Amino acid sequence: MVVLVDENTRVVVQGMTGRYGKFHSEQMMKYGTKILAGVTPGKGGQEVLGRPIFDTVKEAKEQFPELNTSIIFVPSSGAADAIIEAADAGLKLIVVITEGIPVHDTLRAVRYARSKGAVVVGPNCPGVISPGKAKVGIMPHQYFTPGRVGIVSRSGTLTYEIAYQLTKRGIGQSTAIGIGGDPIIGLDTVEAVKLMDKDPDTDLIVVIGEIGGDAEERLAAAIKRGEITKPVVAYVAGRTAPPGKRMGHAGAIISMGAGTAESKVKAFREAGVPVADIPSQVPDLVEQKLKEMGKL
Amino acid sequence: MNLLEYEAKEIAKKYHIPVPPGVLIEEPGQVQQAIDELGLPVVLKAQVPVAGRGKAGGVKLARDPDEAYEIAEELFEKEIKGYPVYSILVEKAANIQRELYLSFTLDRANRRVVMLASGEGGMEIEELAKEKPEAIIKLPIEPEIGLKAHEVREVGKKIGLSGNCLRSFEQIAKSMYKIFMDYDADLVESNPLAITDQGMMALDFRMIIDDNAIFRHPEFEAARERELRGAEKIAAKRGFFYVELDGDIGIIGNGAGLTMATMDVVNYYGGRPANFLDIGGGARRERVKEAVKVLLENPRVKVIFVNIFGGITLASEVALGIVAALQESPVKKPIVARVVGTAEEEGRKILQEAGIPLFESMDEAAKEAVRLAKEVA
């Protein structure tokens, strides 16, 4: 078993006809992900990469009842509608790559999709990859390798960086989930870590946090309460970030005195989670833990 | 994006929230006219798009016209938290009986809206949260249902309100919530919301609008630019994120997390980042060129460290952007690059041909950038 995506994942791409949608659909297909259809309003009847394009997700689902996953590339102004549409079509996993979605739109769409029983990953995220099995996302997959370490990250490129460094060290990954950098997201850090905690194919979880919000503090509290049994290793980006300034991600801002890297690092350490000062220390900490567990 | 107080108060008035009578002035000479209209005493409030203005000396009481003129002169010459003062809101000083706090914001962790209220207004909420967290009452709001009037009244009673004040509080809270939703706000805040001899009144009113929702509120397009300082303006136009810091190593990365990590690594090896610059997802050469130029033109930057991990961004486009910037700019500075990811081979080739030193590891590249910065210094 892996987390969220596997060999049974059947994907519809919302926004497949756009430049990025098409590029990354091709990459996903090369990786072996089963993309069955695309959706772009007004382009129904066309074909992209040998896959039929529909005007609505519902039509795609009628044609391909086995569809269970959507990946969304549509522009920010229409992304919330796309999430709601995927949820209404009964898709169980909705991965939202789009960045710059108004936060009130995300709030509405994510709450709705969750109420329909869908898992939303993102927005503003790189997606999910289970190396060697499937990729529903935009990550350069050559840096990921099959293995037993899970990654949960608020950042896109930093996920690739950490996976790359683990891979170079011969440590493979079970699943990497980029949960996204917006203030309001679907699957959050604690939920993602809990999914991996239950996954028999994951031995250890690397959590890549950053300044802003209190997701890391909440995870540390959950670990302290004993809700997570597998070892966690963390890195928190933004120790040198000044307060009051939004660091790229809409969610990465130290505001009202909360969300500092220090507070997150402190919370992790108090929960017994080793924290890397810089990304290159992550593989060291992972190796150390795996050795302690007798897994290396 | 922060609205100026007078802009936020215009919106408050439209939603029937009482605010003190006020006049906006753009030069000290206009202060007399404002006083003629409002009467004395008056409060002069510098209009800057940033919180914590009072503490920074941007709000002053004047009892007579001479004092008002002097204060206006002084404020117009001042910079408040780096922002020049282009206008002052002159308001009739209110007769305050009690100061409250009321705001609406997003509850990130629980994916909903939250109302924050306190019977102890006036001081900055950050300080209150630190010193007396129990004095802040949080009311969670499910956006599908909206604000529940009875819950607002319960909060009002908890902060000691009764009678007409309780009714006013409910009305103002409802209006503020409506503004929060209608304007795609990240924050709508009144601090203080005061009980005066004229009834309950929003003495201060603040709004932050979601930058990503500006397309729905085109009237604030210009307001967004006003908030940016220096090179941040170019960055906003070109679609990358830029924050100036006080070191000497220019940082360019793709993705907020990686860019912050790059700053952290430079710092770890003893260097000091001059900025945060995230070229964003899927940057093409033109944007990268403008980004590199910003750092070439920043006199504090001694070395530029480009750290790219291509995903949605093509490494080749980044490389072409760097080379183009170097060709176009008269300023020469050492550049250290580390490029991996989508289209990395092509990107590396382009940079190698341009003679830019390339590194495989982020740590090695950072160390070299730190070494070069010390050498240049």
TrEMBL record, chain A:
Q: What class of enzyme is it?
A: ligase
Pathway terms, separated by semicolons: Carbohydrate metabolism; tricarboxylic acid cycle; succinate from succinyl-CoA (ligase route): step 1/1
Show where the CoA-binding domain sits.
4-101
Q: Which Gene Ontology terms of cellular component type are present?
A: succinate-CoA ligase complex (ADP-forming)
Q: Name one GO molecular function term.
A: succinate-CoA ligase (GDP-forming) activity
The answer to keyword Ligase applying to this record is yes
Is the keyword Cytoplasm assigned to this protein? no
Under catalytic activity, the entry for this protein gives: GTP + succinate + CoA = succinyl-CoA + GDP + phosphate; succinate + ATP + CoA = succinyl-CoA + ADP + phosphate
Q: Which controlled-vocabulary keywords does the entry list?
A: Ligase, Nucleotide-binding, Tricarboxylic acid cycle
Binding of substrate occurs at Y160
GO BP: any one term: tricarboxylic acid cycle
Q: Where does CoA bind?
A: T17, G18, R19, Y20, K43, I97, T98, E99
Please list the residues that make up the active site: H249 (tele-phosphohistidine intermediate)
Q: What is its EC number?
A: 6.2.1.5
User: One Pfam match, by short name?
Assistant: Ligase_CoA
What is said about its interaction partners and assembly?
Heterotetramer of two alpha and two beta subunits.
What task does this protein carry out? Succinyl-CoA synthetase functions in the citric acid cycle (TCA), coupling the hydrolysis of succinyl-CoA to the synthesis of either ATP or GTP and thus represents the only step of substrate-level phosphorylation in the TCA. The alpha subunit of the enzyme binds the substrates coenzyme A and phosphate, while succinate binding and nucleotide specificity is provided by the beta subunit.
Entry similarity comment: Belongs to the succinate/malate CoA ligase alpha subunit family.
Protein name per Swiss-Prot or TrEMBL: Succinate--CoA ligase [ADP-forming] subunit alpha
Taxonomic lineage is: Archaea, Thermoproteota, Thermoprotei, Desulfurococcales, Desulfurococcaceae
UniProtKB/TrEMBL annotation, chain B:
For the keyword Ribonucleoprotein, the answer is no
**Per the UniProt record, which EC number(s) apply here?**
6.2.1.5
- Matching InterPro entries: ATP-grasp, ATP-grasp_succ-CoA_synth-type, ATP_grasp_subdomain_1, Succ-CoA_synthase_bsu_CS, SUCC_ACL_C, Succ_CoA_ligase-like_bsu, Succinyl-CoA_synth-like
> What pathway does this protein act in?
Carbohydrate metabolism; tricarboxylic acid cycle; succinate from succinyl-CoA (ligase route): step 1/1
Q: Which residues form a coiled coil?
A: none
Q: Which SUPFAM superfamilies match?
A: Glutathione synthetase ATP-binding domain-like, Succinyl-CoA synthetase domains
Q: What keywords does the record list, in alphabetical order? A: ATP-binding, Ligase, Magnesium, Metal-binding, Nucleotide-binding, Tricarboxylic acid cycle
Q: Give the UniProt entry's GO cellular component terms.
A: succinate-CoA ligase complex
Q: Give me the residues that bind Mg(2+), please.
A: N191, D204
Co-factor remark: Binds 1 Mg(2+) ion per subunit.
ATP-grasp domain boundaries: 9-219
The catalysed reaction is: GTP + succinate + CoA = succinyl-CoA + GDP + phosphate; succinate + ATP + CoA = succinyl-CoA + ADP + phosphate
Name the residues that bind substrate. N254, G311, I312, T313
Identify one Pfam family in the record.
ATP-grasp_2
Write down the required cofactor(s): Mg(2+)
- Gene Ontology annotations of biological process type: succinyl-CoA metabolic process; tricarboxylic acid cycle
The Swiss-Prot or TrEMBL record annotates one GO molecular function as: succinate-CoA ligase (ADP-forming) activity
Top-rank EC class of the record's enzyme: ligase
Residue sites binding ATP per the record? K45, G52, R53, G54, E91, A94, E99
| Function, as annotated | Succinyl-CoA synthetase functions in the citric acid cycle (TCA), coupling the hydrolysis of succinyl-CoA to the synthesis of either ATP or GTP and thus represents the only step of substrate-level phosphorylation in the TCA. The beta subunit provides nucleotide specificity of the enzyme and binds the substrate succinate, while the binding sites for coenzyme A and phosphate are found in the alpha subunit.
The entry sums up its family as follows:
Belongs to the succinate/malate CoA ligase beta subunit family.
Record note on quaternary structure: Heterotetramer of two alpha and two beta subunits.
Which NCBIfam families does the UniProt entry name for this protein? Answer: PRK00696.1, sucCoAbeta
**Which HAMAP family does the UniProt entry name for this protein?**
Succ_CoA_beta
Provide the protein name. Succinate--CoA ligase [ADP-forming] subunit beta
User: Which organism is this entry from?
Assistant: Ignicoccus pacificus DSM 13166
